[in-house]
Amino acid sequence: MNLPKVQSIPIRWPRTVERLVVGRETSDGAGVRLTRVLTGGELQRRLDPFLMLDAFGSDDPDDYIAGFPDHPHRGFETITYMLAGRMRHRDSAGHEGLLENGGVQWMTAGRGVIHSEIPEQEDGVMEGFQLWLNLPARDKMCAPWYCDFAAAELPHFVTAAGVDVTVIAGESNGVKGAVTRAATAPLYLDLHLPAGASFTQALVTEHNAFVYVYSGMAKIAGEIVPMQRMAILANDPKADGVIVEASEETRVLLVAGRPLGEPIVQYGPFVMNTQQEIHQALADQRDGRLA
Ligand code: MN
User: Fold this and answer.
1) Is 85 helix (H, G, I), strand (E, B) or coil?
2) What's the gap in Å between 81 CA and the centre of ligand 1?
3) How far is the CA of 115 from the centre of ligand 1 (A)?
4) 67 near 87, Cβ under 8 Å?
């Protein structure tokens, strides 16, 4: 395949690293081992509109085989990016899909879905990410929406420096992503940098942004970001973007979005604006009105 070579847009004042975050080992669903990189609480407010980032990766089926049986969501969107493996999704809105190597599933829970995410492999590596993106208050009770993108359907380009870029959401160097969202304007890039390469991305100053290094080692504004670290990028009013450099072969996620600035009240798989709305979600789940 002949991919277009894209000349990166120059950045005059790159963002610096505000701090590095180490993920927390945990398990979820029916015992899937994962690393919660973006946890709740204070990080959730700092990285508004992003609520959670889980990284999973194992070649031991015991770590993933049970998957995530039926469970509900309301009030936000889940974006699952599967680097390796096969996962079957089914939900109460009648959607079904198989998520495979390099594919993305974008699900808007809106007023509610009950879904399952179950591996369709008994051995081998399963590796990927699930990012939770908040919905603005006015959209939290919207109709559920769902779309699967196979790897070949995701917008993709290579820069002059040889950086391989998959544009899951937003826009990078003139290439539009698979999904755009007006309220939160999410940018979600997967970058594969060869040794010695650098990548520049324009970012709106007010948008919150982070980089997660899942392979190799990155350098941002002189700061080393080791593997399995999330670098929160400072919202310097002068800054117009970010420059990611790699001295060895490196793979990172670059994520940014417009903060909603609304109250966040989370109870497990429900993310609303008020405690009252959480009580309503629990009552709706109990009475079978959630989906
Ligand atoms: Mn789920």
Assistant:
1) coil
2) 13
3) 6
4) yes
More confident residue, 123 or 106: 106
Measure 209 CA to ligand 1 centroid, in angstroms.
23
Assigned token pair, 178 = 């698979």
Domain layout of the chain by residue ranges:
5-283
Q: Which helix (H) or strand (E) holds 191?
A: strand 187-193
In angstroms, what is the span from residue 170 Cα to ligand 1's centroid?
23
The fold adopted by the segment(s) 5-283 is: Jelly Rolls (2.60.120)
Q: Quote the ligand 1 centre to 230 CA distance (angstroms).
A: 22
Structure tokens at 265: 């009240």
pTM above 0.70, yes or no: yes
Confidence of residue 1 (pLDDT cuts 50, 70, 90): very low
Full DSSP string of 31-58: TEEEEEEE-STHHHHHTTTEEEEEEEEE
Rounded to the nearest angstrom, the distance between the alpha carbon of 276 and the centre of ligand 1 is: 22
